[in-house]
Amino acid sequence: MRIDRLKPIFFLTVCTLFLTASPARAKATWKAGTAKAVITPTEKMWLAGFANRTNPATGSKLMDLWVKAMALEDASGHRAVILTADLLGIPQSVYQHVSAAIEKKYALQPDQILLCASHTHCGPVLRDALYDIYPLDQTQRDLIEKYTTQLESQMIDVAGAAIANLEPVRITAGQGTTAFAVNRRNNPEPKVSDLIETGELKGPVDHSVPVLAVYSPDGKLKSVLFGYACHNTTLQLSEWSGDYAGFAQIALEKNHPGTQAMFFMGCGGDQNPLPRHEVYISQRYGHMLASAVEEVLLAPPHNLPPELVTKMKMVTLPFGKPLTVDELQTLKNDSQAPTRRWATRWLDFLQSGKTTVRDYPFPIQAWQFGGQQLLLTLGGEPVVDYANKFKQSFGPQTWVAGYCNDVMTYIPSLRVLREDAVTKPGARWGYEGSYCFVVYGLPAKRWGENVEDLITGGAKELVGEIQK
Ligand SMILES: [Zn+2]
Q1: Dist. CA 381 → ligand 1 center (Å)
Q2: What is the span of the domain harbouring residue 345?
Q3: Do residues 75 and 213 share a domain?
Q4: How far is the CA of 406 from the centre of ligand 1 (A)?
Q5: CA of 126 to the centre of ligand 1 (A)
Q6: Is 449 part of a structural domain of the chain?
Q7: Conformational region of residue 170, where left means phi above 0, alpha means psi within -120 to 50, and beta covers everything else
Q8: How many angstroms does the Cα of residue 119 sit away from the middle of ligand 1?
Q9: How many whole angstroms from 421 Cα to the centroid of ligand 1?
Q10: What is the domain count for the chain?
Q11: Residues 6 or more apart whose Cβ sits within 8 Å of residue 299
C-alpha cells in the first residue's frame, strides 16, 4: 500500500528529471551565478564624501562593506556580469584595470561588464578620487593605493567566482516605489520636514524601485538586484557603513536566507534622503526600500525570456572653459581648503608647461533583458532629469542607473548646468553643475553646454541598435 502511494510521486520525479535533463529544455533558460566578498577596510583610512570631514575613519564599522557579483547567461550563451559595491564611486583607473582583467580572464567585452557604486559616504577614499578635499599625507596615500589594488583583485575574483557557478535560473522584472528621496536643490534641508507635512516639496524626483529577481530551479530567491535614485548620505559617520542601501541589502538577505541582495544607484545626483543624520533614519529608509522590493516579489511574476543584449559606448564630453593661471592664482587663496588645494595643484601643473585635457570619455551602456526590459547605465553622478527623460523616450520598461563604471564627477542636465552658472542666495545651487569639479579634482569648473545632448544622443544610438 505504501509503495503504491509512492508510485505516482516516483513517476513524476522521473519525468521531471528527464525533462530537466533534456538538452532542448536546458538550453532555453537563463543561467546566473553569484559571489561576494567583504571589502571593509582594516586600516584607518579617510572616508569618501562630505568635504567637511576633519578626521579619517575610527576603524569601527556599523556594518560590513561588500562587493557582490551577479553573472548572467542567456539561452544563446551570451554573458554579462554586474558588480555592485558599497563605495562612493568607481574611479576611472579601477574601472579600466578591472574591466581589462575580466576581459582577459573571462572573455567578456566591456559592454558585458557593469560596475556599480552605491555612493555610500561611509566608505573609503579610492585612488585618484577626491584627493583635493582631504589633507592626505603620504601614509594615507599609500594606504589608499594598497586598499585600491586589493579591491581591484577582489572585484576580479568575485566576477570570476560568479561566472564559475552559473546555474539554470528563472528571472523576473518588476518595479516598486518608495518616497524618501527629496530633490535637494529645490528644498532647503532645514525646511524639509515642514514641506513634507504641508505637501509642498518641489522639484523633479524618481521614486521608482527597479527589481530584477533571480530564482533557483527550486523556486528559492537566489539573488535580487534593485535600485533607487537617491544619495546614500543619511549618515555622516566616521565608521564604515553602507548607509540606507546597506540596511536594505541586510533586510532582504535576512528575509530570504541564502539570497544575495545587490543595490544600484539611479540618477540621484540631486536627490537626498531627507530628513537624515541619524542611524535609525538610515535603517528606516533601508527598510522602506526593502519593503518596496518585497512588494514587487509578492506580485505576480513577470518572467523574462532568456535573451540578453548588451551594448556600450564611450561618449567624449567636453569640459567648459579651460582654467587660467590668473583665476587659479586667485583661487589659491580661497577661503575653502579644498579649493586652495585644487587650485594650487592645477596652477603648478600649468606653470610646469603642461596642458590640461579638455574632455572626458563618458561610459553609457544599454542592456535589454528578455527583449523588453531596458537597463541604461551612465557614468558619473547624473541628476534625476536623465532618468525621467529616458523613461519618457524609451518607455515604461526602462531603468536608468547612474554611478556606473566611472564616477568622475556630477552629470548635470542642461537645466541644472544653466541654473548653476550663477549663484543665487538662499538656493543650494552651484554644486551639481559647477563646484563638484573642484571636489572631484578635474581640470575645469564645469562641463560644456552640450553635455546633455551628447549623452542623450549616445543613449538613443544604443537603444536604436538594440531595437533594430
Ligand atoms: Zn554625490
Answers
A1: 6
A2: 323-350
A3: yes
A4: 13
A5: 15
A6: no
A7: beta
A8: 7
A9: 19
A10: 2
A11: 174
268 and 131 together in one domain: yes
| pLDDT, tens digit, 9 for 90 and up, residues 17-71 | 434 444 444 457 999 999 999 999 999 999 998 888 889 999 999 999 999 999 9
Burial class (CB in 10 A: 0-12, 13-18, 19+), 274: buried
The whole-angstrom separation of Cα 290 and Cα 224 is: 11
Q: Which residues surround ligand 1, an ion (CB under 5 A)?
A: 381
Report if residue 15 sits inside a domain: no
Pair 296, 246 in one domain: yes
Ligand 1 mean position, distance from CA 271 (Å): 9
pLDDT by residue for the chain (468 residues), tens only, comes to 343 443 433 333 333 343 444 444 445 799 999 999 999 999 999 999 888 888 999 999 999 999 999 999 999 999 999 999 999 999 999 999 999 999 999 999 999 999 999 999 999 999 988 888 888 899 999 999 999 999 999 999 999 999 999 999 999 999 999 999 999 999 999 999 999 999 999 999 999 999 999 999 999 999 999 999 999 999 998 999 999 999 999 999 999 999 999 999 999 999 999 999 999 999 999 999 999 999 999 999 999 999 999 999 999 999 999 999 999 999 999 998 889 999 999 999 999 999 999 999 999 999 999 999 999 999 999 999 999 999 999 999 999 999 999 999 999 999 999 998 866 655 567 889 988 999 999 999 999 999 999 999 999 999 999 988
Tell me the CA–centroid distance for residue 407 and ligand 1, in Å: 10
How far away, in angstroms, is 147 Cα from ligand 1 center? 22
The answer to whether the predicted template modeling score (pTM) of the entire model surpasses 0.90 is yes
Question: Separation of 416 CA from ligand 1 center, angstroms?
Answer: 15
Give the distance (Å) from ligand 1 centre to CA of residue 60.
23
| 75 and 190 co-located in one domain | yes
Q: Are residues 111 and 218 in the same domain?
A: yes
Answer yes or no: are the C-beta atoms of 413 and 269 closer than 8 Å.
no
CA gap 271, 189 in Å, rounded: 11
Looking from the CA of 155 toward its CB, the CA atoms found within 13 Å total: 30
pLDDT score of 424: 60
Does 345 lie in the same domain as 205?
no
Residue 419 lies in a domain: no
C-alpha of residue 352 to centroid of ligand 1, in Å: 32
What is the CA(345)–ligand 1 centre distance, in A?
23
CA of 286 to the centre of ligand 1 (A): 18
